[in-house]
Predict the 3D structure of the following.
Amino acid sequence: MAAVLEASDVAKRYGAVVALERGELRLERGEVHVILGSNGCGKSTLCKIIAGAVPADGGSVVLEGRSVAFRTPLEAQAAGIATVYQETGLVPTLSVVDNIFLGQEPGKAGGRIDRKARYARFEMLIGRLGKLAAHLDPDTLVGDLSIDQQQIVEIIKALSREPKIIIFDESTSSLDRAQVADFFALVRALKHQGTSMIFISHRMEEIFAIGDTVTIMRNGRFIDRRPVSETSRDELVNLMVGSALQQMIEARQSHRQPGKPVLSVARLSGGKAQGISLELREGEILGLGGLHGQGQSDTLLALYGGITRRGGEIVIAGKQLGGSTPAAALKQGLVYVSGDRGRAGALRGRPIIENLIVGILSKSSKPIAERGKLRAQVRPVIDQLKLKFGRLSDAIETLSGGNQQKVVVGRGLATGPTVLLLDDPTKGIDVRAKQDLFALIDELCAGGMAVILYSSEDMELIDHADRVLVFNTGHVVAEISREDLSEFALNEASLKTAPAHAEQQPAHV
Ligand SMILES: Nc1ncnc2c1ncn2[C@@H]1O[C@H](COP(=O)(O)OP(=O)(O)OP(=O)(O)O)[C@@H](O)[C@H]1O
């Protein structure tokens, strides 16, 4: 069968960096084709070349038998290729409908925008997304939407062009489990209509849930292509990273012995979090679980002073938290790291080194910073996280998504925190980078650091947490000990509801 799209020998360099050496992809009609590979192996570069976002240095792309080299994304869109990126390219100051139809006005009459036609088309499009877009208001400003809602708008925008090929570049990383299920229903419907899809994801279970074929890449090169039904998780990890590392992944972290209490929180409320009480000990990793958006992130943000606290007492290492700002929290050794690198993480346009030292600088009370000393302080973190970069003075945007995320995490770790608050820290980072990150966290915990980890991936909690507090509608509804941790236990607990007086009476932890 002739492929809808065939890319061969595609190459791309950025100065001295070889982003892609031999990119290959063979996409069939109505197929979901997964591209799998470590951070920085060239997945996004290959997709950007196909989608006209960056020009290739060499190789060929053949679309329906015709050789193409799109100079802009608009050209690719006109040829039927749409892309949904992880970092949304939406305009925050425009409404949902304005973003969706930007550059393609439906029913434009006499040069004027036919708003009625737009809304009608919007309704038709969200109908195709079912529950996924059920509460999306067409007139809300995109900047006021949560990251997951923005991603859904990106998906609708891509669909509005009725593409033959859709590239989903880590589109599920900001969606929760229920949303991913709805998204997959949409993917299946599109497949049924004959739409071909390229799908980048670091979540192994998603590959098996939705993929037909998987292309594995390593260091900018095509390694192999397999039908998903004829491969296994182990084989894919092997192809991706090599067998020694796989053993490391399989080796579950050794059990830690938590020490004395370092954080005590009573009746904390802020954002969606209501009356949260918890205790954390030295060396412990406390997981926060439950469905996405049930108050887990808000608990971390309220602790850190990232959102307003409505009440609660916080004691760190025996001392009351002396303020409500992030600066006060940082001074007492409480550090917050967000996995949402687009919005809350990286300092865009600034060098890698600045992104790394900014935490140390805000903690320090010295008016003058010594450059050499700062570099020496961040060096171990760079080494431990195996950060891949050209020069520390390069802009953070020159790093792959996963490496940018490592910088954001590394910035927090470089301050030597007593308590580290990790808010879904591994969104969009690959299995090897996750391993590097948790190896470092385990090491720091062995030295006494304590961690509260919110993760939207149950497996991450199961692999790393000593116990998990499960959230529902802003309350802690269950606590699961390490011995009892399983996907089933987490799922079951996430459906429990809070007791009627939960606001007044702190949940037992
Ligand atoms: N604009 C750029 N300038 C310099 N180097 C770049 C640029 N874009 C990508 N690179 C480099 O090219 C390599 C491949 O990057 P790419 O984004 O394609 O990787 P990826 O496989 O999609 O990674 P991830 O899973 O982390 O998103 C990386 O080493 C990255 O740092």
